[in-house]
Design brief:
The chain has 14 helices and 12 strands. By secondary structure, it is α+β, with helices and mostly antiparallel strands. It has one domain. Strands 1-10-11-12-8-9-4 form a 7-stranded antiparallel sheet. Strands 5-6-7 form a 3-stranded antiparallel sheet, covered by helices on one side. A hairpin with a 3-residue loop joins strand 8 and strand 9. 39% of the residues are buried.
Length: 340
């Protein structure tokens, strides 16, 4: 990357590029968390929760989505202890990762004092007492972190029994709540035949407290749209057809590589598994200015099998995206100030 390209990509310094090779297949691809990953534009992965320049905008968007659609938040009755466990765990992670902005103190009377300077929050609460928070614990803490949150209860298997999910990628938390982990992932092609989902489930069942792991997932999204849940499909579904007929410059501006960093955390008190989903978006016009990423993404998209592309909802424009990235290597598709 040249010095002249740095201003265009500075906004994406923490972007987690998801492709380690030129071929992508579903896998558990888990690794220990809290290990920084250096990239051509910066670094990511040094903490379980991540705050960036989109913090206020995304939290404001989450609040608006929850107000309009309460089904994005659910806590089944038996998950109340896990919701409190997740709440305190996330506050601890924020305070550890961002001590200049977030402070969590245990008071002498056993209560907790939370301050988030970024959000203007100053609150004293009692762990386990809902009346000491402005909202249900899981919903309240979702206003402090950019991550979506799913809590898995472990019985005979894992069940998605609580969560706050406002930025789902073509799925519905409201539909899935209460389902088993295996049921939730049933529609994903190949993972049962290849044993991926079984291995993932067994791994999660063995997960230990204080040993968090992470993985990445990806798709393509049209426009800088965080909420592409099933509930809002009428708003964004037609874009998949529209993008096929736009000019090249518009195509590069509209089509985004969408990456999720998913953290897997065994909560220490309740024993539930906390599944965090942090979403990042990068338009192809910016991706094309980062040469190793441009080449790798083009190869992955060109080789991706049809059934996987169809499941991700990118089959209508997958080939064009690959071709666009390959052509962008010459700079012919980018305007002089196009990547911003």
């Amino acid at each position: 990357m040249t010095t002249s390209q740095i201003p265009a990509t500075a906004r994406y310094a923490g972007f987690p590029f998801p492709f380690p090779t030129d071929v992508y297949r579903y896998s558990t691809n888990v690794e220990p968390a809290n290990r920084p990953v250096a990239t051509p534009v910066g670094q990511w992965g040094d903490s379980i929760v991540a705050i960036d320049g989109e913090y206020d905008a995304e939290l404001d968007e989450r609040a608006a989505i929850l107000a309009a659609d309460p089904s994005r938040h659910a806590v089944l009755p038996h998950m109340r202890p896990a919701a409190w466990d997740a709440c305190l765990t996330l506050l601890r992670e924020l305070a550890a990762a961002y001590p200049d902005d977030c402070v969590l103190e245990r008071l002498t009377d056993g209560r907790w004092h939370w301050r988030n300077r970024r959000r203007g929050t100053d609150l004293v609460f009692t762990y386990g007492d809902d009346a000491t928070l402005p909202d249900e614990p899981l919903r309240w803490v979702s206003g402090q972190v950019q991550e979506d949150i799913v809590l898995l209860d472990q019985r005979d298997q894992l069940y998605g029994d609580a969560g706050v999910v406002t930025f789902a990628a073509d799925w519905s938390f409201g539909f899935d709540v209460g389902m088993s982990f295996l049921e939730i992932h049933g529609p994903v092609p190949r993972i049962r035949q290849e044993g991926v989902i079984t291995r993932a489930h067994e791994f999660l069942m063995r997960l230990q407290p204080h040993e968090p792991y992470r993985r990445t997932n990806w798709t393509l999204t049209i426009g800088r749209r965080m909420d592409v849940s099933t509930e809002t499909y009428p708003e964004w579904g037609p874009d998949r057809e529209l993008v096929k007929v736009v000019d090249d410059q518009t195509f590069g501006r509209l089509v985004h590589l969408r990456v999720e960093v998913q953290h897997l955390v065994r909560l220490p008190d309740s024993g539930a598994v906390m599944f965090l989903i942090r979403t990042y978006l990068m338009p192809l016009e910016v991706l094309a200015t980062i040469e190793p990423w441009r080449e790798r993404a083009a190869e992955v998209l060109a080789e991706l099998p049809d059934d996987m592309a169809a499941y991700k909802g990118i089959d209508k424009y997958q080939a064009r995206a690959a071709s666009w990235l390959r052509s962008a290597g010459s700079g012919a598709l980018l305007s002089p100030g196009g990547a911003r």
